[in-house]
Amino acid sequence: MSSKRINYSKLSREDRIQSLVQLGYLNADQAQSLINNQGLSAQLADQMIENAVGSYGLPLGFVPQLIVNHQDYLIPMATEEASVIAAASFGSQIINRNGGCQAEVTQSLLTGQIAFYGFDPQDEDRLTEFVNQDQDRLLALANQVKPSLLARGGGARHIYTTFKGEASQGTRFFILYLDLDSQEAMGANTMNTILEVLKDELVARFQDQINPEIQALMAILSNYSPQSLVTASCQIKGRQLKGGGLKGGQVAQRIALASQLAQVDRYRATTHNKGIMNGIDALVLATGNDWRAVEAGIHAYASQDGHYRGLAQWSYDGEADLLTGQITLPLTLGTVGGSIANHPQAQINLDLLGRPTSQELMMVVAGLALAQNLAALRALVAEGIQAGHMSLQYRNLALQVGAQDQEVAELAQALKDSQIPVSQDLARQILADMRAKQEDKS
Ligand code: NDP
């Protein structure tokens, strides 16, 4: 049986895990580790960061199937927000029914920078010329720093420079950029190591040959990564989107309008993108990647033309009844390096994903982002976001007032059916009534 035919939400947690074993996603040890909820041990946490006192848990779940480039992916997601996986699964189902999404990595290069200051205006041409003429040697020097990366087919690819800032308004900087192919690693540490070697070499030569006052301010990767882009797209038959009393075509038309709104209104664009990040962060986190880097890079990219805009865009062709979605994201992800290899949960999650390459992971992230956005927009422009959200939030409310095990589902259902406004007091009262009835029975 394939993962897509199982209604996982109706299974117990143990049965869900066992079915992943039967489908070949997990081995027996991994299943046991999940059943025992053995995430990150305190001992390992203590090795990973300073002043550790333990590890912080998040719910881990999965989307059973998303088709990306005709291949099925089961997608692990770590998130505390009740509706995220339900929405991603719903959006994925619609995309899958229409043949899945297509995704492509156009480039996968990490960019780093070294900033210099203290030069005079008349030095500027010489600085540029110096680097231009020395490019091949500098690239070779960069690659000597990390021969193992070169041996894997990666390494420093381009060097280019610019001047930023005005001396009249403070300081003028000479900035050297380096693009690096970090292969399967995100590459932040590798990049920083290379840049520091180049920085020391360059500042010494600038001081010696151009101006002794020149200083290097810093050398570090940039989390703005427009040289590492992935695009995912999909086409959906409008008639499959009906809901909230609207025909499918009307919903599709309204999704296209919602997409336009996110291009012109910053308030909407921010929430549009937050919904997209619900999916991206959950998958990036589950695979042990640096989600702060991903967040920073994506938001910078969303405002690349000076206006902050929605990342995913949708258009509707009424005649063909086709809704087309597309998203382009800058992503610097790894399947090795950082804490990925050390985190046992990240390793299990990479197995669940089928051990993707870093570029494949970029494509899955972009596909998931589209699915997440489709589900959010469809709910928003059809029945409204609260209909789906609240039934899941009621479970949180039940937990907040102290419901245990089976009480949670029963109380959540009672809150959903309530004819009077829901509040914590109401939840407490219903829970007390439920317990009193239970005591009467026993
Ligand atoms: P690492 O420093 O761990 O370097 C990558 C490691 O992966 C190397 O040890 C390399 O081995 C190994 N490796 C094994 N197989 C491959 C392969 N196929 N391709 C590439 N490398 C391979 O990690 P990164 O350089 O990726 O840095 C990521 C970390 O840096 C993250 O933890 C991130 O949070 C952090 N960071 C982020 C910053 C930011 O975003 N601003 C700033 C500073 C750090 P070998 O050495 O043999 O080549």
Automatic annotation (TrEMBL):
<comment type="pathway">
    <text>Metabolic intermediate metabolism; (R)-mevalonate degradation; (S)-3-hydroxy-3-methylglutaryl-CoA from (R)-mevalonate: step 1/1.</text>
</comment>
<dbReference type="Pfam" id="PF00368">
    <property type="entry name" value="HMG-CoA_red"/>
</dbReference>
<comment type="similarity">
    <text>Belongs to the HMG-CoA reductase family.</text>
</comment>
<dbReference type="InterPro" id="IPR009029">
    <property type="entry name" value="HMG_CoA_Rdtase_sub-bd_dom_sf"/>
</dbReference>
<keyword id="KW-0520">NAD</keyword>
<dbReference type="GO" id="GO:0004420">
    <property type="term" value="F:hydroxymethylglutaryl-CoA reductase (NADPH) activity"/>
</dbReference>
<dbReference type="InterPro" id="IPR004553">
    <property type="entry name" value="HMG_CoA_Rdtase_bac-typ"/>
</dbReference>
<dbReference type="InterPro" id="IPR009023">
    <property type="entry name" value="HMG_CoA_Rdtase_NAD(P)-bd_sf"/>
</dbReference>
<dbReference type="GO" id="GO:0015936">
    <property type="term" value="P:coenzyme A metabolic process"/>
</dbReference>
<keyword id="KW-0560">Oxidoreductase</keyword>
<protein>
    <recommendedName>
        <fullName>3-hydroxy-3-methylglutaryl coenzyme A reductase</fullName>
        <ecNumber>1.1.1.88</ecNumber>
    </recommendedName>
</protein>
<dbReference type="GO" id="GO:0140643">
    <property type="term" value="F:hydroxymethylglutaryl-CoA reductase (NADH) activity"/>
</dbReference>
<dbReference type="InterPro" id="IPR023074">
    <property type="entry name" value="HMG_CoA_Rdtase_cat_sf"/>
</dbReference>
<dbReference type="InterPro" id="IPR002202">
    <property type="entry name" value="HMG_CoA_Rdtase"/>
</dbReference>
